[in-house]
Amino acid sequence: MIKAVRGTRDLLPPETALWNFVEAAVRDVFRAYNFQEIRTPIFESTELFARGVGEETDIVAKEMYTWEDGADPADFAIYKEWMTRNFPEIGSYKNIDPEATGLRQRGLSGPIFLANFSGHYSVIKFKYGPTAQDIGEMIQVGERSKDEGVRPKLHLVTLSGTVHDGVRARAQDAGVKIEELTIENFLRPQFLTLRPENTAGVVRAYIQHDLQQNGLNKLYYIGPQFRRERPQKGRYRQFYQIGAEVIGPPSSGSESPARDAELLEMLATLLDRLGITDWNLELNSVGTPADRAKFNEALRKALDPVKDKMCGDCQRRAVTNPLRVFDCKVPEDQPIIETLPRIIQFLSEDARKHFDAVQEILTKVGVRFSLNDRLVRGLDYYTRTAFEFTHGALGAQNAILGGGRYDGLSEALGGPAAPGIGFAIGEDRLVMSLKETAEGVLRKPDVYVAPMAGMNGEAAKLAHELRRHDLVVELGDDTFRLKKSFEAATKAGAKYILIVGENEVKADAFAVKNLETGEQVQVARGDLAARIRGA
Ligand code: AMP
Hints:
alpha/beta
């Protein structure tokens, strides 16, 4: 039996009724706040997420479903070229099958070798568009070989023009030599990624379609997202988000704290409307990019003497992106994290005023919140307001939604200045936390139309008429005996059964039986819809 892939799942009826109920309710709320729907593609170029979400985030570093869209992997083309140049005596590498080498399965990581050239060892990696992770991988392979008594040189072979400055600096620090090839007739590969979140896609669309012309854009989306996380209850590899973005040129008021507060008030309304009342809104400000730079510096300093006592992830974060240390869930690290400086001490006057204004409006409209100065959110592009709604009943994965401001994101993606704020609700978790049951929101058939022998056509005609009156109609089959029709009607949960026989058609009046009370009446064709709906 072929099963759904781990971390994915089928949503089946009747539970899908609950999903529809949620989506209909949120569409209503979005309408009241004048948001409009946007649908972006499910896959985008990998670069969008690398730049829009941040190379150092867990999402980009570990969790994306990425593939190279094209026949011959670029890393392999670089590998072939290098081998052909350096070892012409081995002959042609043109016929090496990339499948056979396992390169394709390795995806973005690219071929890496420990090779011995005339008595000297080198770690050689072939990589198109190398990242900091690639350098890290080379260092690791180098370290491992030291245990075996070799001290290899680190050698990165790449295509010229594909090395970012940051990676070059990292390589230099680590003593990695970069060799940049030019390859004739090289076809630029295209790397594609299943979207792990939707903000980057929305901002890309904003830039591409010049949506700044509309002034303030209020956009919402509903759809699947993909992350290669360890699956557990409430955490899936394909999951669904309902999100919204408020974005526009600064002149449209997109930066105003009024927008932050309105968005948060809308979310409180939305959760209340769904009957989820025991939520918690946690609020923080992560400051402007300049504030964050100062904060990051202070964190780096504070972490330097203690980082060796922390978990592996934190040791890495302490160097690459100290802010992320606050994401750490390892219990032993918490006492250290408690002693670290807090962003609030580094907020500029502007950021502080903005944050105060958001809180003031929320208090005025009666939205309760608590401040959490450890809330830094998983993505790199957040500025100023950051927030999360949690729900007690959800257990470990208790974050039902999160969001924040991303004033510099558009510029980071090469667009115009376009401050914005948005959120993403985990729809899977939202559905889990509903008190409502699918049975409670499912609309069962109003009537089951049961044709007697030879009456399929007449029954279809009648069902067609009733459905036009907005009734939910289940249509039977004229091979069923009456008893079987009654059983089918009961199983479908229909309220009435309507029998279509020759006599009924002639009389243009039908026997309608209430399946709950057993009451049966004869109703003229023209009165059927009203009778079924009304009674
Ligand atoms: P994030 O973009 O990581 O802030 O995610 C926003 C919301 O999406 C979270 O608060 C969760 O409710 C939900 N979410 C994130 N990742 C997953 C996942 N792997 N499975 C289910 N829900 C998720």
